[in-house]
Each structure stands twice: as C-alpha cells, then as structure tokens.
Amino acid sequence: MNDLCADIGYKSINHYGEQLCGDHVDIVEQGEDSVVVVLADGLGSGVKASILSTLTSKIISTMMAQGLSLEDCVATIAATLPICSVRGVAYSTFTIVHIVNNSEAEVIQYDNPQVILLRNGKNTDYPMTEMSIGGKKIYKSVIRLQENDVFVLMSDGCPHAGMGLEYNFGWKREDIVEFMEMIADVGYTAKTLSTILVDECDKLYGGMPGDDATACVVKLRKRVPMNLLFGPPSNRDDCDRMMSLFFSKEGKHIICGGTTSSIAAKYLGKPLKASLNFEKSDVPPIAEIEGVDLVTEGVITVNKVLTYAKDYLRDNKSYEQWSFKHDGASLICQLLFEEATDINFFVGRAVNPAHQNPDLPINFNIKMNLVSELSDCLKKMGKRIKVSYF
User: Fold this and answer.
1) What is the 3-state secondary structure (H, E, C) of 203-230?
2) Are residue 145 and residue 204 in the same domain, yes or no?
3) Which domain holds residue 195?
C-alpha cells in the first residue's frame, strides 16, 4: 500500500445554444483505493448526444467497477444504444482511466483525443496497445503511477477550440500539452486544472462554443489529513475529552466558533487574539491561537464555505474569490478543497443561547445541517470524511 490518492475533477461547456451537454463524465469508486473514470462524448450535440454519452459512461463505469472485461462493456454498449440513422453509428466515443490500488492506471481510449500524461510537470509518452473490439479500434495502456502524475482526458471540443477563429485547425494537442505543462506543477487541484483548461477553450471559441468541450483531470497526490472543530460539546464535562481527541489528530487544525475557540485557548493555555488582518468581507474576522492553524467565527463563516463548496461542484465560478482572499471562509476553502484529502469533523451539540433569539435566522438544526451538507459536498469532491459528535 502507498499513501497516494486520486484527486479527480472535471468541467464542461455546452455547444452554443444547447441546454444540455453532449459529453458526460462518470466516476465509480471500487473500495477506498481504486476508481473508474469514464469520459464519453455523444455523437452530435444536444439531447441525443447527452443521452448517448450518459448511457455510455454509466454502462462502462458500472460494469468495469464490477470487474467485467472491456470486451463485455463495449459489446453491451453496442447492443444497448440505438443506431444513429444519419451516421449509422451506435454509440459515443469514450476514454477510461481505471486507477487500481492507487499504484497502476489502465487507460483505454476510443476515438477521443489522446490522454495527456504529465509527469514531473512534463509531457510523458506511454505505450499503447491496439485492440479490435466489435470492429472498433481501441487503445489500451497500463501505467505504473508516481506521485504528482496528472492525466488529462478531453472530448474533441477541446482541440477543436478556436478553429477558424484563433487557429486555422483548432487548438492542437501539442498546444494543449504546452498550456498544461505551464500550470501542472503550480499546486492546483484536479478541479482547478480542468476549469482553467475549459475556460481557455471557451475563450478560444469566443464565448460561443462550436462543440461541447469537457476536460477531466486525474491527479495522483499524497494523502493530507485535516481537522475541523465546530461548536462546544453538549456536556461541559466533555470539553477536555473533545479537545484532547481533536489536538491528538495528525494534520492541520481549524476551529470555528467564538465559544469553541475560547475553550480551545483555555485547554492549550494560550491567549485568544483577534487578528489585525481585517479583510473587507461579509464574513466575520478571524482570530489567532498559538498551536492552531486557523481560528474563525462559526455559523456565518461555515455557511459561506458551504456556498462556495456547492459552486465548486458545479461551475467553480467562485474560485477566483476564495482562492486569493484571506477572510475566514476563503481560508477554510483553501485548506479543505485544495489541500486536504482526509477531513475529521469534531462537532459540538451544545445549543448557543445567542442563537435562540427568534429574530435571528440561526438555530441548532441549521448548524447540524451545515455540517451534514458540507460533509456531503466534500465527499463528492473525493475527500474521506469522518464526523464525530460531542
């Protein structure tokens, strides 16, 4: 066993004027250390393409996750999906990356742009074996993984970007490789790398994409634990136990809430200091305790983090806000979304008297719901989450 994990992120833009995207990405986990990632590109665009790509990616990812062979997967797709009356072709093109035990990757490609592998920030060639399945030419590769390996999967909307506008023949694969090499080693997450690539494609299309464009990035990285403490325990006698468990955990420590941070400061025997770096923001200012990586206000700050998390899972449009700002919510996002892979929540069930004012839109249930929703969002980002209540 190694201590690597797969960070996976993707983004799509629709063909101009279409409500639905003709590309689809599906991710199916096999236990804790193996995952199947499928990017399918349906023929054409719009509703028909969306249905084709969704069915293709769902069938392949589900069957492969259950251990069936590639031949069975492709045969099933051919038998399941309808034949296009215009083109006489049954299903969409696809790219599969199957991460096995975070140590090996099986890459299977059918008619999508060739997967880019960046190793140590540079484009790396890898062997491909040609196979014929149901009359289709399919390429398979088996690659031993290293830390910081980056796989870039694309639909053909990416290399077609700018065709007839910025470039005569589109944004060639070698140009995309050069573009990705510039940003691969900066420390961005897979989601951010895919967002930057697709946003660049959108610019090359002049904001009116001539095709659906999707990029999916799979990045191998070391596991990074993180701990977040939110709210005091319901029983005051549990304060020391809660603090002892929280501070004994490996990784950085984040504390949210005024009362909670006061308890932590008392436990550590350190003063709680208000920060002098006040960000102009709708989020309350942060504080400082020696031995704690980040101290913030509670419900308002965590609610803002949840808003950013929901956006991160959709279009990631708020990235430019939280990735550079230094208010409490932005700093938590930087730690949880970009740095952490394993997150331990320590949640106190105490009822805050300040929240019992009927004129305030905050109550105990809202606090518990915040933790539940944020945990769900982080799980969808591929994080391992453990929540302990006190």
Assistant:
1) HHCCCCCCCCEEEEEEEEEECCEEEEEE
2) yes
3) 4-222
